[in-house]
Amino acid sequence: MLIKLTGGAVYDPASGVDGAKQDIYIQDGRIVNKPIGDVQVDKDYDLKGKVVMSGAIDMHTHIGGGKGNIARTLLPEDHRADPVARTDITRSGCGHAMPSTFVTGYRYAEMGYTAGFEPAVLPINARQAHMEMADIPILDKGGYVLLGSDDYLLRMLTAKKDQKAINDYVAFTMQAAKAIGVKVVNPGGINAFKFNQRKLDLDEQNSHYGVTPREILRVLATAVKELGITHPLHVHGCNLGVPGNMNTTLDTIQGIGGLPMHLTHIQFHSYGKEGDFKFSSGAAQIAEAVNLNKNITIDVGQILFGQTVTASGDNMRQHANHKHASPNKWVTMDIECDAGCGVVPFKYKDQNFVNALQWAIGLETFLLVDDPWRIFLTTDHPNGAPFTSYPHLIRLLMDRSFRNDMLSTIHPEAQKMTTLASIERQYSLQEIAIMTRAGAARLIGLQDRGGLSAGNWADITVYTDNADRQLMFEKPDYVFKDGELVVVDGKVVHTKWGTTHVVKPDYDASVEKDLQKYFDRFLTMKLGNFKISDDEITEDGRGSLTVHPLKGTVA
Amino acid sequence: MAEIIEVPSPFCGIGTDDLSIQVDGVALKVVEHGCAVNTPAFEQAITDTRPRVDGKEVSLEVAVAKAAALLKNTNQPVIGGCATDVNGMRALLALADRSGAVVDNMNFTGARNNFLALQDSGWMNTTLAEVKNRCDVLLVVGVDLEGFSPRFFERYLWNEQSMFLEDTGKREVIYLGKAPSGSASTSPNGQKALVFDCANEDLPDVVAVLRALVKGNPIRIDSVGGIAVGRTGSVPVATLPPSVAVADLQDIADKLKAASYSVVTWAAGALAYSQAELTVQTLSEMVKDINNQNTRSSGLPLGGKEGDQTANQVCGWTTGYPARTRFSSGFPEYDPFLNDTNLLLKNGEADALVWVQAFNVKAVPPVTTLPTIVLGRSGMTFEKEPDVFIPVGTPGIDHAGHAYRMDNVVAIRLKKLRDSGLPSTSDVLNAIEHAL
After folding, report:
1. What is the separation, in whole angstroms, between the first and last Cα of chain A?
2. What is the pLDDT of residue B232?
3. DSSP letters spanning A352-414
4. CA distance linking residue A546 with residue A140, whole number of Å
5. Which of A420, B30, B158, B390 falls between 20 and 30 A from B24, CA-CA?
6. How close A251 gets to chain B, by Cα (Å)?
7. With 80 as the cut, is the pLDDT of residue B236 above it?
């Protein structure tokens, strides 16, 4: 079947197309060149007055894995306020802060998203992450495997194993857990919490291993680079949420010594301690450092006001934050000499000084970082806000008068502590398309996604141009996934199953010898039972694996 | 004859995956690392291979068509048991969504003690590998741990080596409430567990005093439980359960606070008394209190047998709620009390029963006059023949699959050990759903 999308204004940063009227042809799931000669178009969509982008990609969203399911189980009252009924083509479920898997897929698609990446896949919990994501319809998905607090790596560092050995271990773990990236959360801190350390600065030693977060970041960032993984080491830094942590973040940027590094939900790591409340914005300094250091990419982790739940691997910081739990119930876990997690419900309030300033810090960061290819639109779903708030966030970025109207309603002391009112920048449609499409695909290393030129998979979103950007981005006219029409007028009309994106870096098979001994001595599972096989993803007939290339040369 | 090694078990809840099993046709023999729970569960012989309708053997197609016909015009069927693997639960939830059924895991009334505590105040928990490497004091509350999991101590406490303990034999084990049935809790050095016995129903008081002592609150009594105020006077003195001395509880509190990484374990289902969720909550809050006193401590709820954690996990991500959830309004509604299979049957609120139990031939459906469809493990026998009986394969024996361990984090990859031709739960439930 040949589909033609006629006359829309195309925003395709991957090809440098910025709003030009272009026709797009779709055949067999992919975008194709205009057929030569007189070929019958089976279905023609008239897109005059419409805006066309590729399907959006959320490069950091907690959609699969144990902590999310703990968050769900913890908050039945939140689900009850947002029940989702079954239809002839869709499953029932629940929505709001931590939606059920099916509703996650539908609601992302209904906003024009066609892929989401779980950033915290614990190796030992990777099966669960993939099984949950396998029950998210429509979207493509993938995960970043979490390392850095696992005892195996820390033992390697204490034993001064060389970088090659660490690379082999990282590559093995990526393959075993079916990952496309590597993440580190509070480097070494989750482990230190198990030894009763309650904080861990960048140069503070783990009391048992004597290893510092700085060393962990450096060896993992090096491994990612040397293995040729496109996605830079994905870093949730030290001291999340601590006033004054901007200095840690600036140190982290300097300390990585030019290696590619992605700093995630940087809003939570951009706090000063100026002012009457000893809490201030560090966004300007952080943005300046990001602008200067081209090896750094960030996503924001914007907070938006309302009830949500925070779910993180960072049990050290989540335990410290539990006193802010609202409602007052929370979970932390130590997990399998591998990692941990913490789940704390939060209600961000615009009349709370700290929350109000967090909101402003996130927006300052968006507006002060110059290069949209190196900054990504996230709320760290569900930690800053549920992903369903993205259209509102886009309006805040694109519409200064709306932004300033909102600013004038927040806690008055927070208004005094932010430069937001004076920032004139408004994001363009092309910049939004970079942040949420082309940039994200490039950052993760997704081949044939995130662009609208021939050869790309036909993940396409069509919006009606509307000065109210929230309304525009809430309700696309059409969403195509792999060339199939899945959403019309913001409602799912057809469902399908996306693929799981992975990389398969090579490793020396001898790494398994040591690992096998370690598993037998200290862990609770046989190494052979730990590795996830391909058929676990594909055997139900819905899932598939898409293996992306590594970068050609090793430095 | 073949021998399969490193076989994971879905039966014991603690994720043993070192079994060696000999396969001779469809007969299995556990030749290494068996235990009182796993060996009979693996070796259970296949009897039925063909489905029955009204007691007569039929083809699978006929049985599926009959099941669909029985479900076709129901208003609120109940799907009980829910003892299967991840794919089985996926299919079960899809069928429930389509038919407006109630989904209720057979162990939920026990597990409810945990869910109510979790959903009210949360907890700080740990997993088995952390226990294996870090736990220096284990407090076992209200459960005979080796009866529950025969290999728990061997695998996770008396392991020869641990990363952070010089001598695992020096770990301290303390039983509060129930005494151990054997000697598995005695360390290889011969160090016996401390045992403080009391009646189950005295545990709320005993645990409350322990938490108070952990917090440093003054206690004005000398003993808890036993002949304490409020006990019935009709019980002969000789059979009264023992009381627990407050001095002993103080000793336990001191040990917990002095430990580097204490672990407090309980089995929600073993706390078989009214409002036992408050006991789980007190224990969980006590663990939090210890963590506020400059050391670490974690809870470790036992469970994970025959798909109970699996049911709650899959129902959790599919609906947002644990596996006692109804779909009769067109969307999931969780009620940990009202959606109880037995209650719905008793009150006449259900109009059909689907029973899914792929693991245990003894876990038979409740007897009812309602139309009854059973997907059961081959070998299941009935007091009253169900309208439809479909013998299904057991995950981890007849087909591959996934099951959650007691600590919820680890999903084990179950292996296929033999070719029995028995269909999987998901095959059958998917077929019934399609026939609807």
Report:
1. 45
2. 44
3. SHHHHHHHHHHHHHHHH---GGGEE---TTTTSS-GGGHHHHHHHHH-HHHHHHHHTTS-HHH
4. 10
5. B390
6. 29
7. no
Query: ipTM value of the model?
Result: 0.97
pLDDT of residue B239 exceeding 60, the answer is no
Q: What are the structural domain ranges in chain B?
A: 47-107+306-435, 111-302
B111-302 maps to which CATH number?
3.40.228.10
- B410 to chain A, any CB pair closer than 8 A? The answer is yes
pLDDT band at B352 (very low <50, low <70, confident <90, very high): very high
Asked if A423 and A364 touch (Cβ cutoff 8 Å), the reply is yes
Biggest CA pair distance of chain A: 73
Of the listed ranges A17-21, A172-176, B234-238, the least confidently predicted one is: B234-238
Show residues of chain B in contact with A98, CB under 8 Å: 320
Exposure on the CB side of residue A533, measured as CA atoms within 13 A:
13
Please report where in the chains the tokens 């026709």 appear, as a residue: A23
Tokens of B383: 């007091």
Chain centroid, CA B313 distance in Å: 13
- Going by DSSP bridges, is the β-strand pair B194-197/B172-177 parallel, antiparallel, or unpaired? parallel
Question: Is A478 in contact with A45 (CB distance < 8 Å)?
Answer: yes
Q: pLDDT per residue over B60-117, tens digit each?
A: 999 999 999 999 989 999 999 999 999 999 999 999 999 999 999 999 999 999 999 9
Q: Which CATH architecture has domain B47-107+306-435?
A: 3-Layer(aba) Sandwich (3.40)
For residue B199, what are its two tokens? 């009646």
pTM score of the predicted model: 0.97
Number of CB pairs < 8 Å for A and B? 191
CA closest to A137 among chain B residues: B318
Q: How far is CA A19 from the centre of its chain?
A: 27
Query: Is residue B207 within 8 Å of B188, Cβ to Cβ?
Result: no
Per-residue pLDDT for A139 more than 80? yes
> Tokens in use for A251?
């140190």
pLDDT digits (tens, 9 = 90+) for B371-414: 999 999 999 999 999 999 999 999 999 999 999 999 999 999 99
Residue B321 to chain A, least CA–CA distance (Å): 6
Question: Which residues of B, range 240-269, sit inside 8 Å of A by Cβ?
Answer: 260-261
Report all structural domains of chain A as residue ranges with CATH numbers, in order of start: 54-492 (3.20.20)
